[in-house]
Amino acid sequence: MVLQGEFHPDFGKVAETLIGMLPRKGAGGMALCIYHQGEKVVDIWGGTRDRFGNPWERDTIVISASTTKGVTSTVLHTLIDQGLAHYDDLVAKHWPAFGCNGKESITIRQLMSHQAGLYNVADQGFDKDSFHDWPRALQVIEQATPVHTPGLTSGYHALNYGHLVGGLVEKISGKPFQQVMKENIADPLALDGLFIGVPDEEMHRLAKLISFDGELGRAITRLERLPQRLRQVLARLAQLFGFDFSHLAKALMPDFITDVNFNHPSAMQAIVPAANGAFTARSLARMYAALANGGELDGKRILSAQRIEEMSQQQTRGRDRVVNFPMGWRLGYHQIYTTGKRIPQAFGHFGLGGSGAWCDPSRKLSMAMTLNTGVGTPFGDLRTVKISGDVIRCADRRMDWPKVAVTPVAL
Length: 411
Description:
The chain contains 15 helices and twelve strands. By secondary structure, it is of the alpha+beta class. The strands form three sheets. Strands 9-10-11-2-3-1-12 form a seven-stranded antiparallel sheet, with helices on both faces. The protein has a three-stranded antiparallel sheet with strand order 4-6-5. The radius of gyration is 20 Å and the shape is globular. The protein starts with a strand and ends with a strand.
């Protein structure tokens, strides 16, 4: 497998790991970027961006599923940092039409930490068309009803988190969501690929999702097609360990999801700030590098250091009601798992298919990986966890070693 780009020798192990992850047969590609102590130390890519052997290029962007939620959350934090809202404000203060049907007491903090109880997308009236139609989607959100008392517990808002938070961004700012993202994050940091809803002029850069030909709904619902005997065994194990997957089905498996194809222009160009962000790994890593460095990178500040401290604080404990796993929700991000030591101060967001991006302010470290093959879990897969562990080990060794000038290795 051939990689392109460059990496600092201290992070050579990460490059080796990425080579091992590239598909040996068939098609598929990926990109990885790492910042450490304000310096870009890894920027590599390889493989193909479609089934026809077209190479993954430096400027290739790719739909990155729920990794999008971390970007969307950061957009809202920039408005709060400007004093336009506060975490304990009622959402209805800024979005009056939202304040009905049991949503009157929901706060921004509850919304961003998945405690609003609005994850039950299957019963909210969404269909494929309204899911892709931003104004209609916000109307569906306004009429939704929580399935439990807001603040009682967390439940992953897998499909509609972006409509909730993105809609709130528009109400607070008075501007279109995409404009706020561009003005507050992409432009100040000079990001080369950060889109939610790919513009016409950028479509030529977009890699195609190879797994399930972009029909991620087929991947999400594949459990329903398992042999009945195996499903019975899994149901018994779930009961034995106290798991309840009925909420997962409502949040992630509404009927319309099997009709959504993220290789189709209607899905690529819609505004779905929970799921259809198209990024370069470089842009994601650079955004998170600013968060890792107290909100500033290369003299450009997008957030205050105080804001970074508050938004990274853990908000929930115990199992998430939807995914049956302790997510350690921050304000729009989850805790980060690696193959190695715990990194309790790290936060970010992974996505279905294996993408992921995160930062660790205690190490001034950030990482992002984008790819177009694999499915895994709703929060990345073993590739995401493994490479994150390698990144931490390389960064820790680098901090322990004597500092000497080393030229990055070009590939």
